[in-house]
Design a protein that fits this description.
The structure is a single chain. The chain is an alpha+beta fold. It has helices at 68-79, 130-133, 140-157; strands at 9-11, 17-19, 24-32, 38-45, 55-56, 59-61, 80-81, 88-96, 101-108, 116-117, 122-129. The chain is built from three helices and eleven strands, in the order ββββββαβββββαα. The longest helix has 18 residues, at 140-157. The radius of gyration is 16 Å and the shape is globular. The termini are far apart.
Amino acid sequence: MLDGDGNGWVSLPDGSRRWGIYGAAGLLLYATDMTGNGHVLLQHRAGWTHMGGTWGIPGGARNRDETPLEAAVREFREEVAGDLAEYTLLGVHEQDLSVWRYDTFLARLPELTPFRPGNSESREVRWVPLASAESLPLLPAFRTAWPHLCADLAAATAGRTGDPGASSAD
């Protein structure tokens, strides 16, 4: 694989631009706290980045010879410092815009593992309660996808205590 051969802008028919010649991918981590409340790991984007100052997930451009999941994990490890050893893949949410695609991989960690910014693209990386995520200034495309991502998380974790799809009687 060529290092960074996917870096570059793609113009969409509506005139907007997206990063990643071969598309892009990101990793949405989910874990529960000691009381069973669900949290997601979000990245506060540095001011100098595209849409800086907003919150989203670690992710970025796919390279030509990598799968979307490989790209999501590579981008996570570039942007976030910490141990990503034990995750369980819950599913994927695909946003296909015909000339460009973004894959969000939903993954569960066994606990709220400590993470911190791994490079200058992140101002902050933090576990955010599911109920509070929408109150943050989210990256516009992430805000649009958020209801679908929550529904996907709920479906993937249904029946587990404290998870988005679990009832309080669990």
